[in-house]
UniProtKB/TrEMBL annotation:
It comes from Cirrhinus mrigala. InterPro entries: Ig-like_dom_sf (IPR036179), Ig-like_fold (IPR013783). This is Immunoglobulin V-set domain-containing protein.
Length: 56
């Protein structure tokens, strides 16, 4: 397993070295909601992130 970071220090990427990876984002705000792109080499996939208020 490899663990790295993106250009943003609040993002941690873990790669199992086989066929999947995990992205952990911390400190998210409602304004962080939107479309992001996940890319590996020439492959890209759009990812929609929806940040919601915690339930009380």
């Amino acid at each position: 397993e490899r663990i790295g970071t993106s250009q943003n220090p609040s993002v941690k990427i873990s790669d199992d070295g086989r066929s999947s990876f995990t992205v952990l984002m911390t400190g998210l705000r409602l304004t962080d909601s939107g479309w992001y792109f996940c890319s590996v080499g020439d492959w890209q996939a759009p990812v929609q992130l929806m940040v919601t208020k915690p339930k009380q």
